[in-house]
Amino acid sequence: MPDAARFLADLDALRAIGARGTGVVRRAFDEADIHARRWLADRFADAGLEARIDPAGNVWGLRGRLLIGSHIDTQPEGGWLDGALGVIAGLEVARGNPGVSVVAFQDEEGRFGATTGSEIWSGTLTLAEADALTDLDGLTFGAARAALPATGAMPDPSRFSAYLEPHIEQGPVLDAAGEAVGVVTAIVGLRQVTVTLTGAQNHAGTTPMHLRRDALRGLSDADHAIRAALAPLVTPASVWTIGHVALHPNAPSAVPGRARFTVQWRDAETARLDAMEAAIRAALEDVTRTAGLGLEISATTALPPTAMDPGLRAVLRDAAAAHAPDRWREMPSGALHDATNVARLMPAGMLFAPSIGGISHDFAEDTGRDDLAICLAVLAEAAARLT
Ligand SMILES: [Zn+2]
Questions:
Q1: Residue 303 pLDDT more than 90?
Q2: Where is each Peptidase M20 dimerisation domain found (predicted)?
């Protein structure tokens, strides 16, 4: 049986490294992050695991063939559980199960790239390519990682049979339903285009309304048209966002001549992503034709959905039913995780704990201690069935 009190004490100890009020700041390879990585390597060694820091800064506790983990770096204003939950839960399970190894990947939160440590390990990115990535101040990943010398090589993925990543949901679904556990079906795919609407820039005082070709009005109409076009195609888990807008000339006394904006949409199924894309493009063409605006749509940026392994999902469902009867569900993950990369190497599964109020990437991020303990119990049960 895992020791929930010891697990919570470890989470609290990690929270103290880089603490800011209720939150934490540990950017990949900053002083607090390096301190936390060395602290974690010591905890792995104390637990009887072979502790290793690899050249990318990933921290490993090696023993069995089932790999459990996540990340311990944070956002610039991070919560105490984002990533840390999965790593510390893995540590506690490994103490009682010799079939388990644990990993804390580096730079999941994207100070330099995005999920950088697991990208390197999975072969999506070479270490040399990663070394050239820079943070917002121009520091390179290569220079930053020199501050944490490797104690060993990256482990060969073939030594592991499967990967489990427990994580907070970072959304409101479980908390709103009063549920304790989410078994992840897939990590959603993401697509994005940049749209440029061109109208006629003119004087805001002298141009009659009926003669205007106002690019902002086109954007506003496009937002409505996209919502209407997507309504019949989507599920409650589908999302779309116009997140970045640039208006030209962006002046109080000028009719906007140009609006450039991003449209991003996410879903767990490729077919639905395709259907959403067709509907978005058709809506944009419709609106601009009616309004007499020019339309340019960029090439689509696409990250495919990552399905979680069906066998691992079944094991996690059984474990959830045993420890949180009637308080669990299957659900997609709307956020990216290291499991996306690890799924290229081996079967991967994910487990969610609720986020109070759905808050994450914020100092206020939190989860009830009872729910953290349930997450640990479900993980330990699943690991026992898999080892
Ligand atoms: Zn995370």
A1: no
A2: 188-287
Task: Give dist(CA 111, CA 371) in Å, integer.
Answer: 30
Summarize pLDDT for 83-111 with one digit per residue, the tens: 999 999 999 999 999 999 999 999 999 99
Burial class (CB in 10 A: 0-12, 13-18, 19+), 314: middle
**CATH 3.30.70.360 given to domain 189-303:** yes
Lookup: tokens for 40 = 């974690």
Spatial distance between the Cα atoms of 218 and 224, rounded to a whole number of angstroms: 10
How many angstroms does the Cα of residue 271 sit away from the middle of ligand 1?
Answer: 27
- Cα of 82 vs centre of ligand 1, distance in Å, is 4
Average pLDDT rounded to a whole number, residues 31-54? 98
Contacts of 3 (CB under 8 A, 6+ apart): 92, 95
* CA nearest neighbour of 132 among 149, 113, 118, 159: 113
Bridge-based pairing state of the strands 239-241 and 258-267: antiparallel
* Residues within 5 Å of ion ligand 1, judged at the Cβ atom: 82-83
Position of tokens 């100070």? 111
Strand-pair category, 181-187 with 328-333: parallel
Cα–Cα dist 230/278, whole Å: 10
Third-level CATH fold of 4-187+305-386: Aminopeptidase (3.40.630)
Is the peptide bond prior to 249 cis by the omega test (within 30 degrees of 0)? yes
Strands 239-241 and 66-71: unpaired
CA of 165 to the centre of ligand 1 (A): 10
**Can you tell me the distance from the alpha carbon of 305 to that of 320, in angstroms, rounded to the nearest whole number?**
24
Tell me how far apart the alpha carbons of residues 27 and 352 are, in angstroms, rounded to a whole number.
23
Residue 83 CA: distances (Å) to CA of 144, 306, 337, 346: 21, 19, 9, 20
CA of 280 to the centre of ligand 1 (A): 30
Ligand 1: centre distance to CA 336 (Å):
8
C-alpha 316/C-alpha 331 separation (Å) is 12
What is the domain partition of the chain in residue ranges? 4-187+305-386, 189-303
3-state secondary structure of 1: coil
- Cα 242 to ligand 1 centroid, rounded to whole Å: 24
3-state secondary structure of 219: helix
